[in-house]
Amino acid sequence: MRNRVYLDWNATTPLRAEARRAMLAAWDLVGNPSSVHAEGREARRLVEEARATLAGAVGALPRNVVFTSAGTEANALALSPGLRRSSGGPAVERLLVSAVEHASVLTGGRFAADKIGLIPVMRSGVVDLDHLRSLLGDGPPALVSVMAANNETGALQPVAEVARIVHEAGGLLHVDAIQALGKIPFQIKDMGADLATFSAHKVGGPKGVGALAMAEGLTGLDPLLRGGGQELNRRAGTENIAGIAGFGAAVKAALQALSEDAEQMATLRNQLENGIRGIAGATIFADEVRRLPNTVLFTAPGLKAETAVIGFDLEGIAVSSGSACSSGKVQPSHVLSAMGYDPAVAQGAVRLSLGWSTELDDINRALEAWRKLGNTLLKS
């Protein structure tokens, strides 16, 4: 029996060996990181080492990094009315989010529904900057949320330009960088982000750990969870020591190999796309703009995503129809709908995403499966 091929890295990644070792070591510790005795201090050391690692990786100060239970919680924590700069100025009163954001951002965090506005995107999936300027000029100060890289198409947003526009209007910028970390360079200061969110299991760490990083000089963050002074009084609850240690180890490993891995993934992605285009009239979404080096979202006339995902699975290839955060059901892509594609097209989108251990043989097997599926599923 042939080994399976995993091409759903944007949904979750395999656990890195470095993360596994860090977690095993952490599970042997007995201390609570809030305790002052030696056992507690040792647990605290692991948490703070991971905090410093993540902070260094994204250009934040350790005191401005908050660990959470997931990227979803980190997004909810970030989307908070009342945020402002400590240097002065009014607090944000409304939220503007791009139409292609992850569901955890589209729900608006703790902003009231009537305080949330949608920023349209162009056909490429890139945010409409002129429309953003118009929205910012029509109301009180806003928190704007624009993701660094789309989880479905891989399209990269012009975050630095968005930040300049937002700051000129007196607003703040949140960046969901969950798909970007470990695939492309991401520095909060270079991007101009005021808040950025991350998730461990997208970078080779364990599931169930996320983080919010903030720029220096931001105030007004209202904790989601209260009842203790953990995480610098920004999130109550005993820390997931093993998960956080694994997160830190995964980030360190990912950053060390970032350039080499990105180059390898881009080479394989291009080969994959060239092969896909030659079968059944397939097209690649967002291929005219800068994208993550590992992501391919495609469709073909008459293709149904649910049937294609099952077909790939039966051929031993794990792929998806887009986001894996919607109760496991194959649903039309809101990202493609926001990009202006017909619902019938959105229902046929299939995503293949690569990772650091993807090999040429994996690409060849995926293309072999697509040839077979294209010849059977799309026969007129």
UniProtKB/TrEMBL annotation:
Q: Where are the transmembrane segments?
A: none
Task: Enumerate the catalysed reactions.
Answer: (sulfur carrier)-H + L-cysteine = (sulfur carrier)-SH + L-alanine
Q: Signal peptide: which range, if any?
A: none
Superkingdom of origin: Bacteria
Q: Does the keyword Lipid biosynthesis apply?
A: no
GO molecular function per UniProt: cysteine desulfurase activity; iron-sulfur cluster binding; metal ion binding
Keywords assigned by UniProt?
A: Iron, Iron-sulfur, Metal-binding, Pyridoxal phosphate, Transferase
Required cofactors, per record?
pyridoxal 5'-phosphate
Where does the Aminotransferase class V domain start and stop, copy by copy?
A: 5-365
> What is the protein's known function?
Catalyzes the removal of elemental sulfur atoms from cysteine to produce alanine. Seems to participate in the biosynthesis of the nitrogenase metalloclusters by providing the inorganic sulfur required for the Fe-S core formation.
Query: In which family does this protein belong, per the annotation?
Result: Belongs to the class-V pyridoxal-phosphate-dependent aminotransferase family. NifS/IscS subfamily.
> Per its UniProt record, what PANTHER family does this chain match?
CYSTEINE DESULFURASE, CYSTEINE DESULFURYLASE FAMILY MEMBER
**What's the protein here called?**
Cysteine desulfurase
